[in-house]
Specification:
two-stranded antiparallel ribbon; binds zinc ion; alpha/beta; single chain; TIM Barrel; 9 helices; 281 residues
Length: 281
C-alpha cells in the first residue's frame, strides 16, 4: 500500500499538495471545495496551473478528492435531492479541472424510506450525475460506511447492489475504510476477517475496482455502528490489525489514506505514516 493522508485546503488546493509533500505523503486526499457547502467556485487557471505543478513536484501515486458531507443521494424525495445531484456534478467538474482520477462518496441515507428504496434512489441519482458529465474521466468511488442510522453502505451487498443497478458501473469505484468496516461489524482486525471481506468484494464487485483505502483506527468498539476515527494503534482495532492489511500483496500499489485526528502542524499524520511503514514487510 502507498501511504498518505487527507490534507487540509486552508491555503487553497495547491497548498494541500505542498503540505502533503512536506510530510512525506505518497498519496493525498482533499476536499475540492468546502465540504459543508453545496457549491464552491470554479478554479482560476492560475490555481489549476499551480496545482498541476505541485502535483508533479510531489510525485504522488494518487491525488483524489472526497465529496462534501451535505450530499445525500439516498433519500427518494425532499428538498435536498436536486441540491445533492447538482452538488455532486459540481464536484466532478472541479475534480476534472484538477485532473483527479476519482472522488470518494458516501452512498447516502434512506432517511426512513427503507434500504431498497434508498439504494434505488442512489443508483438513479448516480445515473443522473453520470449522464450530466458524459465526457468526464472522474470516477465516483463509493465508500463503505459504519452503518450509522439509516446510512447505506455498511453492508458490502449495498455497494454491490449499486454497481449492479447503475447503468455505467465503469464510472464507479470503491474506497474501503478500515474503521467503517470494523464499526459496521466486519472483523477486518483479524487476517481471516480481512480476507473474508476482500474475497467477498472480489466476488461481488471485483478488486480491480478498489481505488483506495482509508486507513483509520476506531475510537468505538467492534460493531458499534458509530463512526469515530482514531490514530493508527490508538483505537479499538490496534496496531497489529493493520499489519495484514498493509501487507496484502493484492494492494501493493493501492493508495492507503489516513483520515485520523490531527493538529495544524500535521505531526500526527507523520507519526501515523511512520507506524504504518514500520509494519511493512
Ligand atoms: Zn468518507
Ligand atoms: Zn473514510
Amino acid at each position: 500500500m502507498i501511504f498518505g493522508a487527507h490534507m487540509p485546503t486552508r491555503g487553497g488546493v495547491p497548498s494541500a499538495l505542498r503540505e502533503g509533500r512536506r510530510i512525506g505523503c505518497g498519496v493525498v486526499q482533499l476536499f475540492a471545495k468546502n465540504n459543508l457547502q453545496w457549491t464552491g467556485q470554479p478554479y482560476s487557471l492560475e490555481v489549476i496551473a499551480d496545482f498541476a505543478q505541485e502535483s508533479a513536484a510531489g510525485a504522488f501515486t494518487a491525488v483524489f478528492a472526497h465529496a462534501g458531507f451535505l450530499i445525500n443521494l439516498g433519500a427518494p424525495g425532499g428538498p435536498n435531492r436536486q441540491k445533492s445531484i447538482d452538488s455532486l456534478i459540481h464536484e466532478l467538474q472541479l475534480a476534472e479541472s484538477l485532473s483527479l482520477p476519482f472522488i470518494v462518496l458516501h452512498p447516502g441515507s434512506h432517511l426512513g424510506k427503507g434500504e431498497t428504496r434508498g439504494l434505488r434512489a442512489i443508483a438513479e441519482g448516480l445515473d443522473m450525475v453520470i449522464a450530466s458529465t458524459p465526457d468526464s474521466s472522474v470516477r465516483i468511488a463509493l465508500e463503505n460506511t459504519a452503518g450509522q442510522g439509516s446510512s447505506l453502505g455498511g453492508q458490502l451487498i449495498h455497494l454491490a447492489e449499486l454497481f449492479e443497478q447503475v447503468k455505467t458501473p465503469e464510472r464507479l469505484g470503491l474506497c474501503l475504510d478500515t474503521a467503517h468496516f470494523f464499526e459496521a461489524g466486519h472483523p477486518v482486525h483479524t487476517p481471516e476477517g480481512w480476507n473474508k471481506i476482500m474475497d467477498e468484494t472480489d466476488r461481488t464487485i471485483g478488486l480491480e475496482n478498489v481505488l483506495a483505502f482509508h486507513l483509520n483506527d476506531s475510537k468505538t468498539p467492534f460493531g458499534s455502528k458509530v463512526d469515530r476515527h482514531a490514530g493508527i494503534g490508538e483505537g479499538q482495532l490496534g496496531l497489529e490489525a493493520f499489519r495484514h492489511m498493509v501487507n496484502d500483496p493484492r494492494f501493493e500499489h493501492t493508495p492507503g489514506c489516513l483520515e485520523t485526528p490531527k493538529s495544524a502542524d500535521l505531526h500526527e499524520d507523520m507519526e501515523n505514516m511512520a507506524r504504518l511503514r514500520s509494519l511493512l514487510r
